Amino acid sequence: MSAILMFQVQIISKLLQILIFLLRISVLQQGICYEQFFGERTETLDLWLTAEIVCLVRMNENLPVTGDILPDLISAIECNFQPGTDYNMRSASYMLIESVKESNQCLEIGFRMLDICFSIYVQQCGLQFILHAIRTKWPSLPPVVQQLSKDRLINCLLSSPANNDIRSTPAIMESFAQCIVAIVECDWPQKWKSFIEDCRSISKIGPSQAIVVLSVIGRLIEDVMEFELIEDPSRNKELRTVVLDSASEFFDLTLEMIKQSKAGEIPPSCAESSVRQRMLEKSYHLLNSLIASLNPRPHLFTKFVDKILEPARDAFKSGNIPVAEIAISCLESVFPRKASAKNYKPVVIFFKSGRLNFAYDFIMMTSLLPFDQQNHALLKAATHLFFDIATCFCSFWVGCFELFEIEDCIDNWDSIFRLMLSLLKHPSTYCRMWCSLIFNSMKNCKKVYKIERFAPILTELFEYIPKATLKNGEPSKAVEPFSAYAKFDYETNTAFSIDYHRLREACEVFVGDWVASNWRRAYSVVMGWLDEILKNPAKASNDECFMTTAKVIHVVFDSLVDVIEDVKKTEYTIIQAKVDAVMNALQNCQVVNAIQALVSILSSLFPILDVSDPRIPGILCKLISSLTLGIDDPEMAEVRHHFTYLFIKMATVHQAHLIAHIELIWKEISAVAGQLSDHQKCTVVEGLFALCKLFKNFEQYAQLMSVTLQQTVEFWASAEIMAAVSKPENFLIYIGLGDPLTNDDSLNLVYHTRRKQFSFHVKILHSVISRLEVPTEIEDAKTGGFCITDVQGNLRICHPAAELFQMIFPTLFTFLRCLKGIYSVSSLKVVHATYDKAKLFDLTDAEKSAVMGKPHETKKFEDMQRQEVFYEKMKLFLAELSDHLQHLLIRCVFAFDWQFFALPNAASYVEHGIFGDLENLMDYRLRLFLRRVITPLSNSTTEVQSYFVNGLAKLVEHLNDRLIARWHLIMKKENAYEFDDEQTKQQIFTENVVSLLTKELALFLRSLLLQQDPEKPRATPKAVELPEFNSSAMDTDANDEQTSSSNALSFLGKSLLQREVNCYASLVSLLLNMLSWREPVAAFHIGQVAGLAILEALQSNGILDEESFKHAYAFILGAMPQQCLNPEFVGRLYDLAVQLYEHFRNIYPNAAQTVLLQTTECSLGDLQAFDKKILNALENPDFKSCNKVTLKVKRDWFKSLIKEFLKPLKTHQVRQIFGELPPLQRPSPQPFFTSSISPNTLPNLFQES
Length: 1249
What we know:
This protein is mainly alpha-helical. Among the domains are: 158-334; 710-903, no CATH class; 925-1211, no CATH class. A two-stranded antiparallel ribbon has the order 1-2. Helix 10 (195-203) packs antiparallel against helix 11. It is globular, with a radius of gyration of 38 Å. This is Exportin-5. It holds the Pfam family Exportin-5.
């Protein structure tokens, strides 16, 4: 009786539920507000209705789904897509849909929902049901059901009416394709041998069916070849082979559909025309995928060359711009920009017998099209195609020259040079830039320049370079015809400037290469240009190409130095005459542009002269006097800087011509020194010290420093400056920030002068130390007087600047700490209230752009308000001053070596000066600090490194506290629900800064802690950029052989983990926390040293107890779900977990097992089986060698143990844990000493502010 009653209740509930559904849908369709219709009973009705649907869902879990549910399901789907549906109703509807989807009848229900009378939502949901059933239940279905389902799906597709708008929508067709692909991935070719023939038959029914077939093949190639989405690797490999073997049939089918889309009369309706256009575009997209899939087997290109080129030729002739752009992509896939040598030979066939002439003609035709947005987009694509073809041809010409039949392929050079000339004449700077980059690829093809048949076109190219390099496409200044293109090429002037410099540099490469191959022809051309300029320099300067022509002349004469002996044999007297003519022209010239051009030409001519030529003194005097040209004109500053650049170039490149005239140079510079700007003075000093390098004489260096740095030493030694830099508050007051913001020019000038003095006296010291070179060989050092003998009788090399610099070190290191302290809260209190402190002490605009990864748009001060100019200049002053001083002192420490550490206060300089007050640095500046310290520190000797242990210990503790706080803040912000636009921007900025700091810190710690491979060359001080990580080189199931072969901690790594240093807890905590943060590159670097650090922590007097080990092991396990989506790195975590399990198994027998049971939720039986395998492996002599095979076996064991823990559905449940490890038996603080130098011998110098 109760069963009958229950059944009646169920029937009544269903009927009521259907009634409410229909009533609600009716109300919504009539446009009546739901709340208005039901009045105050809305909430009650919603709750009841939701409860009824939930009840229906629960019944559905226990009862088989029948046809009775279909009307309710359709109503739920329609209700779910209505915009007026409230949250509760939508959730309940979703529960019902998901319940049916997970039932055993979802396949049948899905097919019944494909009736053409249903809405697009219902049919799409039905296809999703079918797709879900195929992906989850297909292998378990009986063969009869599989065949029946496949037939029903195809029949449904075939029976779709041509005029049915729903079936022809992209969403429905893509859903059909997904279902068919899911079957293909399971059954082809074993159970569906006629798959390709069936595709051909289906495609002939109509355009809609053909689009589905194209999507099926395209998705299949993507899933198998590109993304490898098949879960079973062996099945994916099998399908990959089948796809490649069927490539010819796929090509034929694609070409048939391209022809089919164009066949017949003009379509009668716009709808059918749109479908045919989609079919055509999709056919070319598939063709592109097929070509890309051939890259693993490039030898197949010889088989399909005509099948590739024919449709591309048709697309170019069609005038259909979208299709032409896709055809361009197809050809780009053929010509890889970077290809290995094995890929060269197969593609040679494309360059033979004029096969690419149609492509060259199309690119030429595109460059001649009138401007409009569509044509310009096509031109950009065509230019990229031309770049790919040309660079690929250059690579083949160099790498496989013997494979070419010259007569078959050499005609390509004619077409390439002809197109380059055409594109270099185009008004679009973007296209000219991409075209010019081909010159870089031609650097190794210089033999082509010597082929006589190309001489006319190459000469024409050379003669056009001055016009091609005109700066006429800047968005804010461009005029017609350049302005129209500039608007679509670049958003900002900065973006334009970047491309313009690339264009100019590439053209200069061509000029230099062509001169090296045909110097007589280039020399003849530029001599004609020079004669025209010398006739009347003032008049010639009015020509728009005057400066670019002068630049080309300058490059040509510079390049003649490489063939100088040949030039001197025939042209020396002519060169002398031209030098005299230029000097005479300079005597009478008053036009700035003309003077700048003539001096540049003169500086490039004088290296061709003999060292003893009497004209050289006059040239040097003229160049040095030009440094003060227009000294009172601010607009001439750039010209004067250009002359300064020429001087430093001459001093570093052409030293032999200058060294004989050093006294004259010194006399001339002394005469104009008072008129030089600070920047010029620093550059001139650099040039002088670069010249002194040739003397290799200690006394010479000492004398030069004594003269050039006398004022600088007096400045830093003065009581006024020492007091100003003693505390951050004093410094801020000294540079004027303690006084109100004012427009009083006289007062502002005083403070401006003070700021300029600080900048200058830091920069000039940096200029000296950067150019001063000390011999590294003992014999050379002895000859030059650089050696002394210490008390032990050892011969030591002295640095000539050490004695002078040690006099000002107390002030400089105090100032370094002072600059870091100006950002502290206490220091900011002295800044007057009239200043906006947030703007005053912010990052510069350039630094912000670097954080966001955007090109920096330089602001012009004349376009800004006066206060904004002040804030921007002050930010630049503080940033550059701190940067230069930090760089200078770190460089001094490592350059002076033993001389620095012999100073009484060396330990305090390092610990308090370099590593002091780091907590006040902003995150971005701290990143730069790590980058600046890392290379010299890792390259230094153990003796030097020992002085840095205390400072590094403080740094590690601070970094641990800072990074954990930053990560917590980011996670907290992500969990916040309400953000306005400003908060969102700030959140993105913060995340980017923390990301940069985390990656830099990971690289720093890896370099610091890991012992370097002695066989590998050490990094140079200039190599401070973060290396690009090649994730494709990593293999999840293989040992990381490409990483450092060293498997030991460095001296610093061991020192920092000693109990006495007292930072090991922070170091281990930092390493483990970084493993579970979201930066995969950081995790990779840290993964190399984390295990070594933990083992060292145990071996260093047993400071890692059992509880600490459990926490550490839990960190490593917790990092795996975070990194499981990055298979390149998670393999290292597996190896680390296995290594620690083995090592600590006997020390703390149950610790690792307890953590595994609690964290990964693995079964006790599986864990015991894993433990037994590890035990057997430890006892097996074959496993004692830690090679690639044994690591892979153990890794597989571990992955099998925690496979449930790593499932994607569980990944989101694992929270990142950031915090300190347990105390690790922390001892009482004891300083770590490696010498008798006390760190507190300078109480007055480094007193707390």
